Amino acid sequence: MTRTNAYGHLAQGDRAYGNGVAGVVTAGVADGLADGSAGGEVGDVRGDGPRLRGDALTLAYDGRVVAEGLDVSIPDRSFTVVVGPNACGKSTLLRALARTLRPSAGAVLLDGRDVTSLPARKVARTLGLLPQSSVAPDGITVAELVGRGRYPHQRLLRQWSADDERVVGESMAATGVADLAGRLVDELSGGQRQRVWIAMALAQETPLLLLDEPTTYLDIAHQIEILDLCARLHEERGRTLVAVLHDLNHAARYATHLIAMRAGRVVASGAPAEVMTAGLVEEVFGLPCRVIDDPETGTPLVVPAARRRTGEKAS
Amino acid sequence: MPALGVWPLGLLAFGAPAFGVRACGAGEVRPVSVVRTAAGRPVVAGIVAVRPRAVAVGIGCLLLALAFGVLTVGSGDYPMSPADVLRTLAGGGGPAEDFVVRELRLPRVVTALVVGAALALAGAIFQSLVRNPLGSPDLLGFTQGAATGALLVVVAGGGSAALAGGAVLGGVVTGVVIYLLAWRGGLHGHRLVLVGIGATAVLTGVNGYLLTRGRLMEAARAMLWLTGSLDGRGWEDALPLLAATAVLVPVVLLGCARPLAITEMGDDLARGLGVRVQGLRLVLTAAAVLLASLAAAAAGPVSFVALTAPHLARRMTRTPGPNLLTAACVGAALLTGADLAAQRLFGDHQLPVGVVTGVLGGGYLVWLLAAQRKAGRI
């Protein structure tokens, strides 16, 4: 396990991992989409650090401080999952990384530059966000909704190109919604709709993609389906994914890099096998548990203790 | 008019879920279907065209508006057939016809066209900005602000040019005040609605007070203006409005329509896609307030066009999105049609156009509520 402030080390470790999978582009998935190495457009001033990190972030809503002096770094080409109890600031952190919340102190650095100083559309071609709640307009079709992901690539005088069309088709194919292209989004099931939103985020063609609780409100089968999809996008396209998840076992199974937060601080970060220990779960969630090997994958599996102790500390 | 401030409170508060805001459309691009090529790679076929239905509705309404305009030009104490009107407009009429058409009647029709389009555009912008189908400048206080400005001029004994100026100034000042009051680290739809309703109530009271302060003749003139009338509009009324809309409309349609459609999907998503949401809201609020104020300056606070036209546009096009351009066409058709009806339907007794739009618009709204209730959505 790596404690915070060690992100030089983390970055190195995970880049090594990233390089390992970068070449694995599986056949059968449309191959035209930008992969992580394509880099987007902000990438001229790159140091050795990770492309996306938060530096001494203080995050607040209306003056109520959620997190203070928060340092996080997202290893390149990782599937990073942020876990933590309710109200620990994980969604807030994601919103700050996606620049939808401006930090009251500190900065989110994308390729070494403060995201707030970069042109909004330029950032939107490098860093995508799928927020927790988005409104699908009434009467919009699947293909139209996915097409909106092309917005940052479009110009006033060149609103729809063959390129846009190709990317929309490929994004729908990659998420398995191509057959639904002409259907109205209102008519779809929850799982289908979430895949459509992910297709929209894919159509944005960003090497970095942030997902805020992508599996919430879905049944278990659809949760696994969405996470499998994310894992495939990460492995086959070399995209850097950052997701907030509630289910620790899903996090441990799918993440290549785990960030555990509690009360606005990063408690631990690193590979799931190292981070996800009974001690950490107790420290972060106040939940006594055992951690065993997932019989399917060998990743950590958190099994809550059968009965809570009395007088345990609140989370 | 005073009642207007109160009744929509509940509807504004609960309108969005009740109506189910019919939102967005990133332009009317529409990939139609997916086919698979021999290589098995999916391609979206049918080059993403503008939705034909939206184009048809827009063009249809524009033609309807022009037809109403021609009929209006042909009606009056010196009746002319549509063919004569068109011939005169093309330059083939006699001096008398030329004078009647170009100097007396055309300015009124042009004013009606532009006021209708401007009001509808302002309404469509506000409905989309506040994500509420009842978010129109009449209900958010901007029109009342314009009326206050105009009434102040009336009480001070100013002429009609000053009255128009007062209306624009009143609308803009009200817009700035509401914007500042609703601002809290960003502009949010529900705060704008609530502050707007408060402003409407206050300004309605102020307007009532100003009416009682005016002398009888002035108060009567003010009442006519408050109802919304196109009587006796000349080029001096139409031209400032034309010039302003010629600047504002392209800014709104070309610069803001697509990001506005994106923003309807949620602020976070829009920011993630690179829309500068707060900047967009500022520009659009300013444009919509200006459009509504200028329209009020030219024709008075004509009621319900701003509210009704965007709804009609969405229902007819069945296209997601703010449907800004279509709404403007519908607004132009509505106001020219209402003006024609106001002149023609009641014999010698000409009505101010605001009476007709009020009755039509109010009736439409009641019908809409009834239909929605039957459909189980309210």
UniProtKB/TrEMBL annotation, chain B:
- Superkingdom, according to UniProt? Bacteria
Provide the protein's localization.
Answer: Cell membrane
Q: Which UniProt keywords apply?
A: Cell membrane, Membrane, Transmembrane, Transmembrane helix, Transport
Query: Mainly localized where?
Result: membrane
Tell me the SUPFAM superfamilies matching this sequence.
Answer: ABC transporter involved in vitamin B12 uptake, BtuC
Which residues span the membrane? 54-73, 109-130, 150-180, 192-211, 238-261, 282-304, 324-342, 351-370
Keyword Repeat annotated: no
Q: How does it sit in the membrane?
A: Multi-pass membrane protein
Would you identify the family this protein belongs to, as annotated?
Answer: Belongs to the binding-protein-dependent transport system permease family. FecCD subfamily.
Write the protein's name. Answer: ABC transporter permease
The organism of origin for this protein: Microbispora amethystogenes
